[in-house]
Amino acid sequence: MPDILGWRGKFGVLGPSTNTVVQPDFDMMRPAGITAHYSRIFTPDTEAVSNETFRAGVEVIGANTLDAVRSVMTAAPDYLVMGMSSVTFFDGVAGADRFVSSVEQESGLRISIGSHSCTAALNAYGGIRRIAVLSPYWPSMNTEVARYFSDVGFTVVRDRAMQCRSWTAIAEVPPSTLVQELRALDGDDIDAIIQVGTNLSMVRLAASAEVWLGKPVIAINAATWWHALRVNGIKDQMDGFGRLMAEF
Description:
Blueprint: E1 9-16, H1 22-28, E2 34-41, H2 51-72, E3 79-82, H3 92-107, E4 111-112, H4 114-125, E5 130-135, H5 139-151, E6 155-161, H6 175-185, E7 192-195, H7 203-213, E8 217-219, H8 220-231, H9 243-247
Helix pairs in contact: 2-3, 4-8
């Protein structure tokens, strides 16, 4: 018998314990019959004051991920979704594939991750080759993001690392600041803007930005959740979260 509430599928979601955005974002986009079961990756909210301390913090999260996988597996999910993006960009496509392999080997389930989901989203729109990237990260992490997108055939024309100084501070960035960042990144030389960093509240703002910028603006939480739904045969289309969820 199927789960009473998750009769179409139960998704196990992995996210940092400091992340307060990805869970409500995914829940907003959750169609009837799909349930999401969150497993927190233990993440000290240490202050990032340099490229080095930011990267060290990300590596702590990566090291604790499999514990969260083992925890969520006790709910017998059908599929896994990674609610953190930075670890999925390290070391380009090879690093992303290693991350997927480690989680899938531990769990026996498939997983959607931010980096590969963004690639699938860009390809769904079609005709996109040159992009700009917005992140709450530090510059060293943006370098990893650009490396990944270069590996899959896109050119990062420019990027912005907002250098948030703690994990929880990412969720405190106001929409007014994000609007300024998007306008600064935009230009005739790019086809789309990608936002990474799952604790940055961008799903609804990215949807509206597609209207006033006149090009795809992809929030990583929308891309990751969309990918998880579509690879599981869930084709429900939803307004309010950008063309990705509404059309593809």
